[in-house]
Amino acid sequence: MNAVPSGVCFYLSVAICWLTAEVDASWWYMGTLGSQVMCDNIPGLVNKQRQLCRQHPKVMQAIGAGMKDWISECQHQFRAHRWNCYTTARDHSLFGRLLLRSSREVAFVYAVSSAGVVYSVARACSQGELDSCSCDPSRTGSSQDARGSFDWGGCSDHVEHAMRFSQAFVDARERKERDARALMNLHNNQAGRKAVKRFMTLQCKCHGVSGSCSVRTCWSAMADFRRTGDHLRKRYNGAVQVAVNQYGTGFTAAHAHFKRPSKNDLVYSEDSPDYCVRNQDSGSVGTAGRVCNRTARGADSCEVLCCGRGYDTARLSRTTKCECKFQWCCAVHCRDCHQQVDVHTCKSQT
Q1: pTM for the complete prediction?
Q2: How does strand 240-244 pair with strand 267-268?
Q3: Residue ranges of the domains in the chain?
Q4: Which residues form a coiled coil (predicted)?
Q5: Residue 146: which residues within 8 A CB-CB, separation 6 or more?
Q6: Which pLDDT band holds residue 91 (cuts at 50, 70, 90)?
Q7: Longest C-alpha distance within the chain, in Å?
Q8: In 3D, which of 240, 195, 202 has the Cα closest to residue 70?
Q9: Structure confidence by residue, pLDDT tens digits, 13-50
Q10: Interhelix angle for 57-77 vs 31-40, to 10°?
Q11: How is domain 302-346 classified at the CATH fold level?
C-alpha cells in the first residue's frame, strides 16, 4: 500500500479535506481562532464546508484519522487488478488526474470515501471523542426481534447523525455545481453512505440465572468496514453507465439494454482506460514493476496484469520462522528457515 504522507491536506474533487492521523494536531487545541485560520487556508472548500470545518474541528480530525482505513480498504479490494487504488504522495488530490474522469473506478472512490466519513464519525461519536454527539439517543426502552423482546442498552452507533454530517459536508460542493458530474458524485456518495447503514447489526448480552438469557440487553453496531468494502466492490462490478436525462435531474441508462440504476448502484459515464501503461492524462500509473502470479489465470496473472508485455523473474532468498514448538512453560521456539523464491514482475512498455 502506498503510504499517505503526514501533514498534508488532500483535496479530492468531492472537496473532502483529509487530515492524516500523523498531522501536527496542535491547531486543534488553539481554540476557535486556530480552527478558523486552518479551515480558511484549506484549498478548494466551498463556504458551507468552511463553516462546518470551523464549527466542528474535532469531527474533521476524526475524518482525517479514518482516512487510512478507507484507502486501505480500497487497495485491498483492487490489490490484484491493473488499477489497484494507487495513491500518490506528490499530488494534492491523492489520486491524481484519475479523478477528472467519470469512470467506474472514480465512482468507487467517491462511494468508499463517503462511506469512510460515515464510519469514522459514527465511531468517534460512540467512543466519546466528540462533543456534538455520543451514542444513538433513539435506542432506548424496549424492543423486539425474531428471538423475542429485549432492552436497549450499551452504546448504539449513531449512524444517522454521521450520515447527516457526511451529507452536509461531503455533498456541499456537488450541490453547488449541479451539473452532470455533480449528479453522479452525489449519487455515488449516497450509495456509499447507505452501504454502511446496510450492515448495522444487533449485538446483545444475556442476563439471567445460569445464562438462561431471560433478559437481553442489546445495542446497534456497525459491522467491520470490510463488509462495506465487499459490498461496494460488488456494486463496482455491476456499475451502470448512465447519461443525464433531458431535465438534468436524474439518470437514464446509457444504452437501451442497460438497467436503470437503483439508489444502491454505482453510476459512471466514461469508459475506463486499460491502466496498462502510464498515462498522465488518464491518471493511469501503468502496471510496470507490479508483482504478478505466473501460474494464476485471473486478474493477478502475469498474462492479464502485464497486458501481454511479459514479465521478469528474480530469485530471492527469504527467511521465515518454521518448525515452531511449544515449550512448557511458556515459550515457543522456532527455527529460521531459508528458501529461494521466484518473484515475477511486469515488464515496462518497450
Answers
A1: 0.85
A2: parallel
A3: 9-286, 302-346
A4: none
A5: none
A6: low
A7: 76
A8: 195
A9: 333 433 433 333 444 444 555 567 778 777 778 889 88
A10: 50
A11: Endo-n-acetylneuraminidase fold (3.30.2460)
